[in-house]
Amino acid sequence: MNTLVFLPGASGIQHFWQPLRAALTEYTDQQVIAYPGFDGGAPNLAIQNLYDLQGFVKEQVKDDSILIAQSMGGVLAVGLALKHPQKVKGLVLLATSGGLNLKSFHCADWRTDYREQFQAAPDWFVQDQTEFNPDQLASLEVPVLLIWGDHDPLSTVQVGQYLEKNFKNAKLHIIKGGDHFFANTHADQVSVQIQDFLEQF
After folding, report:
1. How far is CA 162 from CA 5, 165, 166, in A?
2. Which of 13, 66, 173, 192 is least surrounded by CB atoms within 10 angstroms?
3. Under 8 Å between Cβ of 170 and 196
4. Contact 65/4 with Cβ under 8 angstroms?
5. Does residue 115 have a pLDDT over 90?
6. Rounded to whole angstroms, what are the CA distances from 117 to 22, 79, 154?
7. pTM over the 0.70 mark
């Protein structure tokens, strides 16, 4: 059985995943990545930007893992799949809010509220300017499950539709009534989609 690796969003809050992990208990090999300096964790002075954090994450992930990423965690997941394909057997991207120019998708800017709410956290995610171009997205061979909420102002459904179009092997599912944090609030619905996705591995 492949390891399910959970990548938090910019908050780095690990317990965000608790309801979804509980709904996926049949998959016993699960791992939540803790970002140094986030969610009360000790900082790592060797990590000064998102590129450094991606290198840190790479060392934590086994080969042929399934990455399940929330919001800005999707930048790490896609970046890892592009640069270290042996690590990633499949991607589950939930409300991805990075790696693209979101202005063209009518998304609200999350950065101001984030700075106010997480003043003690490093600003790697806020400062990140990573943009994956269509050729990069199309180069990914792994299956991708895209799940979006239809009431999410931070990453609109149009973002998911764009990614579904540009990934080679992607399927988009919409959570009705889901906001940016539907993976936590609608964990049962999300788990059903992930379970169906995992049957191919």
Report:
1. 24, 5, 6
2. 192
3. no
4. yes
5. no
6. 27, 26, 16
7. yes
Question: What is the C-alpha separation between 38 and 9, in angstroms, rounded?
Answer: 10
Looking up tokens 């060797």 gives 46
Q: What is the pLDDT of residue 121?
A: 84
Six-digit token string for 182: 């539907």
The DSSP element (H or E) to which 60 belongs, if any, is helix 50-60
Average pLDDT, the chain: 94
Q: Cα–chain-centroid distance for residue 75?
A: 7
Are the C-beta atoms of 152 and 145 separated by less than 8 Å?
no
Task: Residue 79: count other Cβ atoms within 10 Å of its Cβ.
Answer: 21
Task: Tell me the torsion sign for CA atoms 23, 25, 26, 30.
Answer: positive
> Which tokens is 40 given?
């009360």
| Alpha-carbon span 157 to 150, nearest angstrom | 6
Residue whose entry in the numeric block shows the structure tokens 């938090």: 8
Helix (H) or strand (E) holding 185: helix 182-185
Place of tokens 């996705």: 197
CB-based burial label for 182 (10 Å; 0-12, 13-18, 19+): buried
Distance (Å, whole) CA 143 – CA 81: 11
